[in-house]
Automatic annotation (TrEMBL):
PROSITE patterns per record: PROKAR_LIPOPROTEIN (PS51257), TAT (PS51318)
InterPro entries: TAT_signal, TRAP_TAXI
Protein name listed in UniProt: TRAP transporter solute receptor, TAXI family
A Pfam family the protein falls into: NMT1_3
PANTHER family: SLL1037 PROTEIN (PTHR42941)
Organism: Halorubrum vacuolatum
Superkingdom of the organism of origin: Archaea
Region of interest (Disordered), residue spans: 26-57
Length: 380
């Protein structure tokens, strides 16, 4: 595999600086517009996935490059890198900054990484040629590996509005996050499902940067906004900000909303009876019981990533996850069964990951194992 050590050193220096900014609260969310400047523009257009060359560490069997977007996702990626360095004798892992989940999907397909951290909705849209991939499809799909963490998404309304249930969002000014964010794309995809599509069609969708949204809520130009975070860790940064500035309450879910979530393949339904604690709200949101549509953030492999490397990385995620969480609590799986939570139906798993799941006794025979000779044929 081709690894540029000088670029790796420059990345680590940049990551260290980013860590300082992150502590100060200056970094945004890990969703990034794929049209933003690409940190890989200076790299070679193609890399040899899984091939050995003189740059590879001779003390390990495999060395892999992993595309990772910023914010909390980068924190998880660096924690996995640290854990691999500590516990594996066969694998070396390099975290490479990549512009967002959608951008990472394109870059894995373009052979720039051995894999990337990508949400399941982007994977599903790449497979079906929807959303960003309708006009710019990929030739190959990243293959499923394992869950890294979920984003539970739900809706909050300003306390001074008349919005109480999801149906009341018809006619309201609703903010589903910043254009280009995967959380926004997933939310709009869910809302366009029957039987709630008619509610969505009557919403006034607000477009703005997440940095401006808390102020707009405070001023009254946004009536309701999505909230999202990792259960047990807390909400994402801009939601934490509007929690501090605006009185809000949970927009009560309806049976129709639950049906729409269950219908949509790119997200999974989750229910909480202690939402105040799970998402670390600083104010009373009016209930402890909420429903979320979960955007699952996963490790997805390039089809030609060596099977041994995929097996070892999956093993570390299943068996050494406590080491990962020493650096970053957002990595939530605690065992092999957790790693396959929210897996996409009829979407290929990398054979190295599949082999580990078979050995661990959690493999479902209805799942698909990718065949590298057919890697361009798994589209719908």
């Amino acid at each position: 595999m081709t690894i540029d050590r000088s670029k790796r050193r420059r990345f680590l220096q940049a990551a260290a600086a980013a860590g300082v900014l992150g502590v100060a609260g200056c970094l945004g969310d890990e969703d990034v517009d794929p049209e933003d400047d690409d940190p890989l523009d200076d790299d070679d257009d193609d890399m040899d996935i899984g091939d050995d060359d003189d740059d590879v560490d001779e003390d390990v069997d495999y060395e892999i490059r992993w595309g990772t977007s910023t914010g909390g996702t980068m924190d998880v990626g660096l924690a996995v890198e640290a854990a691999v360095s500590e516990v594996s004798d066969t694998l070396a892992y390099s975290t490479i900054e990549s512009p967002g989940y959608i951008g990472t999907t394109y870059r894995v397909a373009d052979n720039e990484f051995d894999g990337g951290i990508i949400d399941t909705n982007s994977l599903n849209n790449a497979r079906t040629g929807q959303s960003d991939f309708a006009d710019d499809p990929v030739d190959i799909l990243p293959w499923q590996g394992f869950l890294a963490f979920p984003y539970g998404i739900y809706v909050m309304a300003r306390e001074d509005t008349d919005i109480e249930t999801f149906d009341d969002l018809a006619g309201a000014n609703v903010y589903p996050a910043e254009p280009g964010f995967s959380t926004r794309d997933t939310t709009l995809d869910v809302w366009q499902q029957d039987p709630i599509a008619d509610i969505y069609e009557e919403m006034n969708i607000v477009d703005m940067d997440v940095a401006d949204a808390p102020g707009a809520m405070e001023e009254g130009s946004i009536d309701a906004a999505i909230a999202y975070g990792t259960p047990g860790v807390g909400n994402t940064g801009w939601v934490v900000e509007y929690d501090a500035r605006v009185d809000v309450r949970y927009v009560e879910h309806t049976d129709d909303l639950i049906e729409a979530i269950e219908t949509f393949p790119g997200a999974s339904l989750n229910e909480f009876d202690n939402a105040q604690e799970e998402f670390a709200w600083d104010q009373d949101i009016g209930t402890d019981e909420i429903v979320t549509w979960d955007l699952n953030i996963t490790y997805a492999f390039h089809p030609e990533c060596p099977e041994g490397a995929a097996y070892e990385l999956t093993r570390i995620a299943a068996e050494e996850n406590d080491v990962i969480r020493q650096s970053e609590q957002r990595f939530t799986p605690e065992n092999a069964e957790d790693l396959v939570t929210g897996a996409l139906d009829d979407y290929p798993f990398h054979p190295g990951a599949a082999e580990y799941y078979q050995d661990a006794g959690v493999w479902d025979d209805d799942w698909v194992i990718g065949d590298v000779d057919q890697m361009g044929e798994y589209f719908e």
